[in-house]
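Z., the sequence and structure:
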Amino acid sequence: MNLRGKLPIPGSYNLTSLELISDFFPTLGLQLGELVAEVNLYESIFDDCSSGSIVLTDSRNILAKLPVVGYETLKITYSLDWEGDGIVPESRMESVTREYRVQSITNYNKGLPTSATYILNFISKEHFDNLTTKVSKGYRSTSISNIANLVYLELKSLKRFSVDPTIAPHDLVIPNWNPFTALNWLANRAKSGAYLGANYKFFENSDGYNFASLEGLYEKASNPIYSVDTYTQLPRDAVLTPEDRGASFKDILEISFDDILDVSDNISSGMYASKIIEHDIVKREFQVKEFNYNNTFFLYNHLNSGNTGLDHSRADLSLGGSYTNKSDSRINYVPKHYKKHNNFHSYGDNIEDTFQIRNSQFSQLDNFRVTFVVAGDSTKTVGDVVKLRIVSPEPMQSSPRTIWDPIYSGNYLVVGLKHMIDPEKFTTTMTAVKDTYENPITNSTLRLEV
């Protein structure tokens, strides 16, 4: 639903409340707003919990007066600043409130006798619940998604837990592990019930906790019910004042390319091809399964359509052909035990069905990783899909049309995010990855300068 109201000012914000509440004095919250030099809120698809930090300049010795001893809740409420009139999405109209638990105090520096600066680090409450909880249970003929639900209940968290369904029953024992350890272990073995891949991750974002198939997240790139934001690198010939930069939420203010194609890593990780040898010690049998990236590319969901492997027809045979034909690049052994749980199954926890494709799918994401900064946007979270338009590093044509880089432009998955608030501005830094070129290489226009 759209609402008519004031338009948000990119980079501007209202820090409505920054309250520190002690468990010993729950009705006496302490406002830290006037002491704040910087607030950072972090999310990552590779971390179990959301976290953050605050840089404080303290001349009131709140560490001793509250006191801060590790039993405190930090409550942050902020929103965008507004001006003018226009149509605004409802999600941008709302203020954002987050609650965390204090984790540690670092970088304590007392430069002046009457003042100290330090960093207050905080993390989701479930982090501490996880450390104080153990799961020791067996599960028979149960899907991994159902086991994940049961394990999450051990945390007694009120946050939403979203689970993508998995396929195949499992007989598993979790031996006195923390819930997060168990959930990450389960993610490594989960095979999707809706897709053919096995790239599950357990993580927290602004919506809650997730046990998600990345292929399900990729679906946002092609499903019209999702809105994919497009972020554009400013053209090189754009003449902009400092006030103009960041005038839009969709302008890329800074960008760095963190990971670029590494063929050696792709070969050794088994991204292109691999072999798995299953050995049943009871039946004294073994089977060999080979994985070929090119042959299976269209079986799985991707963020874009451009295959990063070299197809057989274009491979130089004098160099031995495509790397996707080299299954000896990576060989793994999987032990199996017929009827090991006194049942009729013959499997080694189904690892043989997930190991190869999981290795390949996560290795594909290592080929393109970028970090970019935009005006602060509290609606973004890890697990979102965004489209990037990156200016091509080549001479401009006579036409004023900007040439977009066919390699680095395209749909990306947001895997890391930092909201940074300081006295002057609010920015959002996103780390994003993709597994494919925007379009197949054979369809890309080759432009050679003579």
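The chain has four domains: 2-123, 129-214, 227-260+367-443, 263-362. The chain is about 15% helix and 40% strand.

Let me know what you think.
H.
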